[in-house]
């Protein structure tokens, strides 16, 4: 009887430890993250993020790849007409990179919609859309890692040029029907 009382708490403690080890969410290694991103990018050049994927692939360190993120608000109830135009231009750049002979796992393009990651918008103090940001392989984004669409617009050509300036990776930009320069207007997001 005494033996059973001593063993029960030990087994219970052991059970908690095992559940804690196997129940905890496993952090991906750098190689696993880069591999998953490469697999996803070969299927879809612009990766769709939510708050969890943003933290997993963009904020997680270490990183040996750059990530370009378009923060947007594409839902019709957000009334961001300019976001659709910017998305089309961004898609041209992403497609040009994906089908380029120099495509590698050193650069990825992604998109985070306000409705899928409003907490990320708040963390980054973003109150308008669209916003294009470069998250470098090392360190945190600096002021120049945000595309100044008020000054240069968001044509696919200008996005590709800015990406090259930030990453030193040249994208063989393929002009499409949407390749015309667009002005730098933004749509405000709700607080």
From TrEMBL:
GO terms for biological process: magnesium ion transport; protein N-linked glycosylation via asparagine. It is a multi-pass membrane protein. The chain crosses the membrane at residues 6-24. Keywords: Disulfide bond, Endoplasmic reticulum, Magnesium, Membrane, Signal, Transmembrane, Transmembrane helix, Transport. InterPro entries: OligosaccharylTrfase_OST3/OST6 (IPR021149), Thioredoxin-like_sf (IPR036249). Pfam families: OST3_OST6 (PF04756). Its main location: endoplasmic reticulum. Belongs to the OST3/OST6 family. This is Tumor suppressor candidate 3-like.
